[in-house]
Specification:
With 83 residues, this protein is mostly helical. It has one domain. The chain contains three helices and no strands. The relative contact order is 0.19.
């Protein structure tokens, strides 16, 4: 399987896990992918700032899930502030 395929799978799973943790109603397959992918970037940045190393598929999943949770928290805060 191509490398990018696994990033898509990890992004979908991370977005789905973040939705479960944050008690969301789900964002659908595409929404989970987008949240997981952006979460991977955010998680990688935050883990880098904190000097936390993660490797392998499990590390990527944890990093992307943490980032996706942070993304959902920020989006909900912005939505709540704009109401």
């Amino acid at each position: 399987m191509p490398y990018w395929f696994w990033w898509i799978v990890i992004g979908i799973v991370a977005g789905w896990l973040a939705g479960l943790v944050m008690k969301g109603s789900g964002y659908g397959l595409l929404g989970d992918l987008i949240i997981g992918a952006i979460g991977g970037l955010i998680g990688g940045y935050v883990f880098g700032l904190l000097k936390i190393k993660s490797s392998g598929p499990l590390g990527a999943l944890i990093t992307a899930t943490v980032g996706a949770i942070l993304l959902i928290v920020v989006v909900r805060a912005i939505r709540g502030a704009s109401r």
